[in-house]
Write a structure and sequence with these properties.
This protein is of the alpha+beta class. It contains 14 helices and ten strands. The protein has three domains: about 230 residues, no CATH class; about 90 residues, no CATH class; about 35 residues, no CATH class. A three-stranded antiparallel beta sheet has the order 3-2-7.
């Protein structure tokens, strides 16, 4: 075997010495075995004592927690404002299908089944994007609203339902919502993967077996899932104690006003006769305000309204404090701003942090939908090797006045230059109709 030598060895006149390959000098190190199976587990022991340690507050142990969180989101103005502040920007932003290297036929079918535009909603050749038919079709806006219920309850579960079109292709008909109140069990494998869910039998068939839905037909959105805990964690969990105490304070405040706002009627008898005291007590108990209200007492007797001596406790400061804590639990500090001044200097910083949390939330929704809706749809029609498009969304807050002002400054400073793509982006961001093609018009006659 001829072994090449370096140029320096030839110039020095040295006779080249054959060098054996490294493999001939010593045996190759054995290749480390790559782990291909799991030895640990993600599903904790489900003995009775570990189940008790799962949640310290008894009323917040699933499924009893569903009723509590439902009351929190429907009975308290601050809690409802918190949920709307988190969900409305995600629902309001523009969602679309990105081609992502997929074939046009695949992209078109996915966009039609989800009822979303391709790209930023400007079709080829300009003009307004057509509004798809909605009857017996999947509605993304309705699905997104129900998917975001995972924030209130920790999870939101859907069942995939398909239909065959004229070309015998499977098309997404709907993602059927399975309400949290109907779920009775999450079946999870030892490695933490979801196996199935169980629904309690419907009211019309109480003696029937539970309805079991396998993971292959499920789409599950979870909030802050940890390991095998597919029930997730409610966004309202940290606000529960503040909501509970605030609710009691409001009820106490209402009772104080009701009992002490007018005063307590007090009857002073003229003598010590029991009959007169009994009559006076009835008179005091029946005391009501009104245009025709009045009373008469015997000579020497009297009736008066006795108010509380001293000051009543003021429940408003603690109520306001707990309201603030509910807002802070979701980074929505700006919900606590009032007309007292001073705090508005922090509004922008607080809002920026809040918007970042909304971006993360929207990305989690997009990731779950891409993995368990878009990819499933493409796999059923074209197989697992077919490139898939992606569900994407416009950056939340991109259409704000601050963003438009920044864009105006960058163009004026010559940092960026306007072109057709930038104009279409700005039109889309501020909700303007797309620019018509050259020689065309978006106006219909």
């Amino acid at each position: 075997m001829t072994v090449p030598t370096s140029r320096s060895a030839r110039v020095a006149g040295h006779r080249p010495t054959a060098v054996r390959p490294r493999a001939a000098l010593e045996p190759a190190a054995p290749r480390a075995a790559a782990p291909t199976t799991e030895q640990g587990y993600a599903l904790p022991s489900m003995s009775w004592w570990s189940a008790l340690l799962e949640e310290e507050t008894p009323e917040l142990r699933w499924p009893a927690s569903i009723k509590v969180y439902d009351a929190m989101r429907s009975q308290d103005a601050q809690t409802q404002s918190v949920l709307r502040a988190v969900t409305m920007p995600v629902r309001r932003t523009r969602w679309y299908i990105d081609q992502n290297g997929a074939r046009d036929e695949v992209v078109q079918m996915v966009a039609e089944d989800l009822g979303l535009p391709i790209g930023v909603g400007v079709p080829a050749g300009g003009g307004a994007a057509p509004v798809p038919r909605s009857r017996d079709r999947f509605s993304w806006s309705q699905h997104l609203q129900q998917a975001l219920l995972c924030l209130a309850f920790g999870h939101s579960v859907f069942e995939q339902v398909y239909r065959l079109d004229e070309q015998e292709r499977l098309r997404l008909r709907k993602l059927a919502f399975r309400p949290q109140k109907t779920l009775s069990k999450f079946n999870v494998a030892a490695d933490g993967g979801l196996v199935s869910i169980e629904q309690a039998p419907p009211a019309s068939a109480r003696k029937a077996a539970p309805v079991v839905l396998g993971v292959e037909r499920l789409v599950v959105y979870t909030n802050e899932r940890e390991g095998a805990e597919w029930r997730g964690r409610s966004l309202l969990r940290a606000a529960y104690k503040h909501w509970l105490i605030k609710d009691r304070l409001i009820r106490t405040q209402a009772q104080m006003i009701d009992r002490n706002g007018m005063g307590v009627p007090l009857y002073k008898a003229a003598g010590n006769g029991q009959d007169e005291l009994d009559s006076g007590r009835k008179l005091a108990s029946a005391w009501r305000s009104g245009l025709t209200s009045g009373a008469s007492v015997p000579n020497g007797a009297d009736i008066l309204l006795r108010g509380v001596e001293g000051e009543l406790p003021d429940a408003m400061p603690p109520i306001k404090y707990h309201d603030e804590q509910i807002g802070r639990s979701v980074l929505a500090h700006f919900l606590n701003l009032d007309a007292q001044g001073g705090s508005y200097a922090l509004a922008k910083v607080q809002a920026d942090t809040f918007v970042q949390s909304l971006q993360a939330l929207a990305q989690e929704v997009a990731d779950t939908t891409n993995q368990h809706v878009v990819e499933d749809l493409v796999d059923l029609t074209w197989g697992p090797d077919e490139p898939v498009p992606l569900l994407r969304f416009d950056e939340i807050g991109a259409g704000s006045g601050a963003a438009i002002e920044a864009l105006k400054w960058l163009i004026g400073a010559g940092v960026i230059f306007p072109d057709r793509e930038l104009e279409e982006f700005v039109r889309s961001a501020v909700g303007l109709p797309p620019k018509p093609p050259a020689g065309g018009s978006t106006t219909t006659t």
